[in-house]
Amino acid sequence: MWMCLESRWTDATIEATLLGLLSRCLREKKELASRAIGERVQVARSGFSFYKGVERLGSIMEKCRSHFNSSDVVMSVSDAERLLATLHELRDLVEQATGSVHTQGKQLVDFLATVTPITSSPTPTRRELYGSHSPLPDTRSVASSDSGDTSDLDNGIRRPAPKRIRSSDDLINSPTTAGGSMGNEEGDDVVEEAGHQQGDSPRLLVTPRKTRPGLKSYKSSTVSLALSPDQIMIETQLYKVDQQLQGLLVLWEHRRGQLDTSRRVIEFKEAVPEVTAWLETRGTDMLKNKNNFGRSKEECLFSY
User: Fold this and answer.
1) Rounded CA gap, 181 and 173, in Å?
2) How does DSSP classify residue 187?
3) Which of 1, 58, 159, 205 has its CA 20 to 30 A from that of 42?
4) Is-contact 141 153, C-beta < 8 A?
5) 146 vs 11: CA distance, rounded Å
6) Contact predicate 187/209, CB 8 Å
7) Which residues pair with 191 in a beta bridge?
8) CB-count exposure of residue 46 (10 Å: 0-12, 13-18, 19+)
């Protein structure tokens, strides 16, 4: 009788524990779903604002390009100065719009890095769910009995062994390529995973040991592998904006040089009649004050 009561009490305790755990999981999953939906709405609004800014920047760049590519000839100094002032205003406008787009893009990329994935709901472990009365076999013990090492196990699931990433030198040294050789040489790249704390993005450090003759050298770099497709798309858009801005600045510099040269030429042409009139006046004065030695007009001009 006592055995039966104890068994019923144990079953009731296990059932209550399971119901509590399932209720907690459902509540946390609902909270995560609600938060994820709110974050998705904010991402949609920020993305819409970002791409509207990119569209506005594109129209501004087209307007600036039409002015920077212009080859109109100016006829006065005032026109040249007015066009130069317009060029400076357009450059300030396009740089300000580009900076605004960059700020929105960087903020959106940083926010996407903190967005809660919809599929990441807390799942109870086997011991939390079933306790010590689990009727199922313990996968951890089964896996550890095979190899005797549980360092690569996570909740009873064996993780695959890390694969070696092939570098550019591996392709050169491959026997399938021309001039390749078997095995690793001294010039192979060292590819290793950089140590990172919990919560940081995994990174790869690619450090070349030696540059072979005839190959273009490259610097060591750290490449982040944790970017989502949305983040990569935004970064690509920002890169395109930078390239377009650099092209516009080259056109701006060329047009500014043209207008500055035209202004100087017009100023010189306008100053020539004044200088000529001054020379004529000085020549007339010298002829009136001609001395008794009978020097000619040219001699007076060059000896005065």
Assistant:
1) 5
2) T
3) 58
4) no
5) 33
6) yes
7) 206
8) middle
For residue 212 the two structure tokens come to 């072979």
pTM of the predicted structure, to 2 decimals? 0.49
Q: How many beta carbons lie within 10 A of that of residue 54, not counting itself? A: 19
Place of tokens 């704390």: 197
Are 192 and 216 in contact, with CB atoms under 8 Å apart? Answer: no
DSSP letters for 106-140: HHHHHHHHTPPPTT------HHHHHGGG--S--HH
**What is the assigned CATH class of domain 1-131+230-304?**
mainly alpha
DSSP tag of 161? P
Output the six-digit token pair for 134.
């689990």
Given a contact cutoff of 8 angstroms between Cβ atoms, the answer to whether 303 and 295 are in contact is yes
The pair phi, psi for residue 193, each rounded to 5°, is -90, 125
Q: What is the DSSP string of 234-253?
A: HHHHHHHHHHHHHHHHHHHH
Measure Cα distances from 279 to 271, 282, 283 in Å.
13, 5, 6
